[in-house]
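Why do we care about 3D structure at all? Because function follows from shape, and shape follows, mostly, from sequence. That is the central idea of this module. The next example makes it concrete: a single protein chain, its amino acid sequence, and then its structure expressed as tokens.
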Amino acid sequence: MAVKARTDGIEIQGTTLQYMKQQKHVILRLGRYLVRYRLLLALAFLMTAAGNLFALVGPMLSGWAVDAIQPGKGLVDFGRVFYYARWMILFYTVAAALSYLQSVLMVTISRKVVYQMRRDVFDRLLALPAGYFDRHQTGDMISRISYDIDLVNESLSHDLVQMLTTIITVAGALAMMVAISPPLVLVFVFTVPLSASITRYLTGRTRPLFRKRSASLGRLNGFAEEMVTGQKAIKAYCEEEEITRRFRQQNRDAVEACYQAEYYGSTVGPMVNFINNLSLSLISVCGAFLYLSGMMGVGQISSFVLYSRKFSGPINEAANIVSDLQSAIAAAERVFGLMDQLPEPADTPGARCLDQDRLRGAVTWDQVDFGYEPGRQILHGLSFEARPGQMVAVVGPTGAGKTTLINLLMRFYDADAGEIRVDGTKLQGITRASLRKSFAMVLQDTWLFQGTIYENLVYGREDLSMEEVVEAAKAAHIHSFIMQQPEGYDTVLREDASNISKGQKQLLTIARAMLQDVQMLILDEATSNVDTRTEHQIQAAMARLMEGKTCFVIAHRLSTIRDADQILVIRQGRLVEQGTHESLIAGKGFYYRMHEAGKMGELV
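And the structure:
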């Protein structure tokens, strides 16, 4: 059977069998989380079963109480009525108490499951290669961690128990109805298959729509996150109207996807409810004939009607939560989709850890080719050697491949061809952790987290003394600013350090890099957010701290690279020139032309 759905002009097509297999796989994976708390789950199910069985006794007691009335004569045995009423109150009270306890227990279980699931998703995010984050929206990933897992939480805490309640109640009510009047049960032979067929048909239509809804909400969150982050640029370029138009389109797409899913999902309950009411009407008519023929008493009819409501009611409720289940399964599918992403490849067998005490910092590139996508090569046959303690500057036009060089050096990506060696060892023969710990990085896009200034400075080096931290801060010319803050080094930075300037953030990250006891440094536009005077001061301080260390510098400012031991000129992914500033100027090649064009202080 083919399943088709159209949302926002996009057709989703697949087979019912494929969707059922996917749904079964997702449910089994959720089951593995639940199995970890099987004792609590078994207790919750036991309470559910006991509570529903106690509630099933009520209609039978009600029927016996009705039989205490003599039809026609109007005589009532109030002793029997009150006797059965007291038992009904007792059974229903116990059922309500058990229902409350199992609800609390299921909330506890779902909280534990969701905690573990979020933890697993976040752990997988940390294990993913850098390329994954380059290709996917941050907002969409956040949506999976928060919104999608919240949907799973709601389903586990409510829908799972509801389905179990449905099974127990329906089975128990059916057994009691068969015991009361087997002929009257035949009414359900017609109504139950009809209800099942309609439910199956409608869920087949809604399943792909809920997947579409989750995906569209993820895209909307991703777009919103990007626009909120870039609000200053939006205002600066007066693009509010264009961004508003694009957001409205994204919002319209998401709302339409939600409407389609909820519309088809909401039709299940009313359709099943109509069939249940039809069965109640048939039971009333048939029961009247059976009473007139002497085959059933008034009490039996009363009990049968109550059991029929207990039989059809859970079915109706189950139909009503179908949309919730479909939504939760679609959300879980997106969560597991993120968890199934391949992590960063493991270190090759036999890979060694770099001994930081013996590391010299010699780096060799030998005919390195690389492209982020197949067929789109960025670097072509790049070869050079950085000797221990050298300062190597990398310059070139925007898009030439300068930052790509750093990505390969840190093994955020692996080269397609050629070799990169550190102290004679290929990068693939070195563990990633020890390789990355051998570098300190200062990037143009600064990253500081919500915490104290001190915590940000010692990030990755919690063993440092306060004197060492202050010394580095002074060298980076940020100590005076820190001491002007209300709490000094204990001043708390807000999220993304939004309460300080970009230049101050850059100085803090430079101080943090100075505190790393490493042999190699990477500076990617490290002084782009500071003024020229401060830049000269920082360079003087860093020159002392970088003594004997291999340093890779990517910069546009001529003053940053004039004293470099060697300058690599990259153009369209190729090394076109190499040498010192003086030799490259004398050569009057591409570097010379950049130098002449950048006499005002910038290399273009």
